[in-house]
Amino acid sequence: MINTKWLKDLSEGQKGERVIAEHFTTKYHLTDIIYNDNYRYDFKGIRSGDTISFEVKTDRYEHFKGYITNNLFIEISCSGKPSGISNTQADNFVYYFPDLEVAYVIPMSKLRLLVMTNELELTEQSGDGGRVQGYLVHRNLFKDWFNIISIKKDKNIWVN
Question: Which carries the bigger pLDDT value, residue 157 or residue 31?
């Protein structure tokens, strides 16, 4: 049986990836965008002759739940296996809040350092039927770690 919530989350994530890729194409002259459907990265492109890859997390939790948590959820495992930042090969991590029209961007190495060197809340049994584990990073307390950028969204693709 197909999990409709998972399919909706996947669709939301893919929309977010396209919005972020377009933003980096327009604002930062990233070219030759290639999307990927495995753990290595979500998309990559070329800027000034260098290939740069991105892992994108799209988060609409606050929109659907109706209250602000101020957290970024940083996935580290699923079903007891490394996932999220534990196994991505992306150069950069983008945490995108489409309803707030803001994205938190950080090099992957710096994000891993943030997670390892701070006492963050480790959540057990989150997402995907309680199979996902990750850290909560308070976006206001750790904002200096991130490049925070404004992303104007296309209202038409975010129909609930």
Answer: 31
